[in-house]
What does this fold into?
Amino acid sequence: MKFGFIIDNRKCIGCHACTTACKSEHDVPVGVNRTYVKQVEKGQFPDTRRIFSVMRCNHCTDAPCVEICPVEALYIREDGIVDFDNDRCIGCKSCMQACPYDALYIDPETHTAAKCNYCAHRVDVGREPACVSVCPEHAIIAGDMENPNTEISQLLARQQVKVRKPEKGTNPNLFYIDGDEASLNPEATDPSGPGLWNSQARGVGHFAKAASKMVNSNEDVDLLQMSIDNEIEAAYQRKDSENPNYIDVMNGKARRVYDTPDKGILWGWEVTAYVITKAIAAGAFLIPFLALVLGYEVSDTTKLWSVGISLAFLALTGLFLVLDLDRPDRFLYVLFRPQWKSWLVKGGYTITIFGLLVTLWGVSTYFDWAIPEKPLLWATAFFAVLLAIYTAFLFAQAKGRDFWQSPSLVLHMLVHSVMAGAAVFILVRFIIGDESWMTILKPILIGAVIVNLFTLITELSITHPTSAAKSVVKMITS
It folds into this structure.
C-alpha cells in the first residue's frame, strides 16, 4: 500500500477550497499553509492563460526531511504517508532546508515543524483527505497507488503525469496531469511584486514569534507596516509604462501572480556563529596536535591553553545551536531520542565525545596522570577532524539547497579549522611566550589561507549541475 496524490490541472479552477479546508481541518495559523494554490499567468493579451497549481508535501518515497530529522519527528508510515509528531520536534528547521519543495513551515503557535500529513487521522478511519472531499471539480485525486482498482492507480496508468524536481531523487508521490513547467518550477518565474498576501513584514512561521514581540514592544513596527502598505499602494498606482509587469505581459513572459509569503532565512546568525566557533574549537586542538606529530615540543602551559580555548568555544558552539532551536527546551532530544541517519545527531555526539576527550587530556596534563598520551591524542584528533567537517555532511543532506551539495565543502571546513586554530595560537603566543613550536604557525596559516582561497575560487568558477546552484553563484559573484 502506498498513498499518493494526483493534481488534475485540467480541472482546477483556483478556488482555494483545498487551502481553506486544510486550514479548517488542522487549525493552521494565519500566514502559513499546508497546501495552497500557486497562480502563474502566461501569454500576451488577449491570448493569456492563468495556471493553477496546488502545492503541498510530495510524500516522497525517499523523503530527505525524514533522513535529516534528528529526533524522528518526521517519519514514513507503512502506507507511504510522511507524517510528523510535533511532540518530538525540536524546531531545528533542518527539514525545511532538506525539502526541495518548500513544503514545511514552523507553526507560530507550537514552534514546531508542520506540513501536509495526508489527513492521516481521516485516512485511518477510511475517509479521504479534507482537500479531496471539498474540491468542487474533483481536481485532487488521492488513494492507494499500488491498488489497480483505485482511480489514482488507473489515472497514473493512462495519463502523462509530471512531478516536481525529479532530479533530486526523492521519488515524490504527488503527480500533476497537464502540469506546466512555468508553475511547477519556481525558477521559471520571478517572484511577484508587492501585494497584500506576500508583504507580511511582521513575519510568518519561524519569524512570527519575534514579530509578535516587536509588535507588542516597538511602535516603530507600525510605521514599518505603514511603509509596506504605502509601497503596495504605490505599485498599483504606477503608470503601465513604469510597471515591470507591463513589460512581462507585452513580452508574453510567464508571471507569478500568487504564491505564499517568503519564509525568510531559516538558519540565521546563530548558525553562522556556530560554524566559526566550531572551527576554532577543533583547530585549537589540531594545531598543537600537528606540532607534536611533527616533532615539536609543546609545553604543558600551551596544552592547557589549547584545552581551555577548545572547551570554551565548544561551549559557545553548543549554546548557538540551542539558541537556533525554536524549541530550545527540547535540545537534549538530539542525544536521548536520536535518529541515527541525521548528521545533526552524529554532530551532537561528536561535540559531546570531543569535549570529553579534550577534558580528559587537559585533566591528565594538569595532574600529570599516567595515561597513555599517544592513543588519547590520536582519538581526540579523529573527533576534532570529524567536528570540523561533519557540517559538510549535514549540508549535503539539505537537498533543498543546491549550492550546498558540493564535495569540496569537506575540504573547505577542514581548512577553516586549521586557519582558525593557527590564528588563535598566533594571538596566544603573545600571552604565554612559548616560541618552541610557533615557527610552524606562520606557514600553516599561510598555507591554509591559500588552500581556502583556491577552494573558494574553484567552487565559484566550476560549472554546477543545477540551475539553482548556478543562480546562487551568480548572486555571490555579481
Summary: Confidence is low (pLDDT under 50) at residues 238-251. The chain has 18 helices and eleven strands.
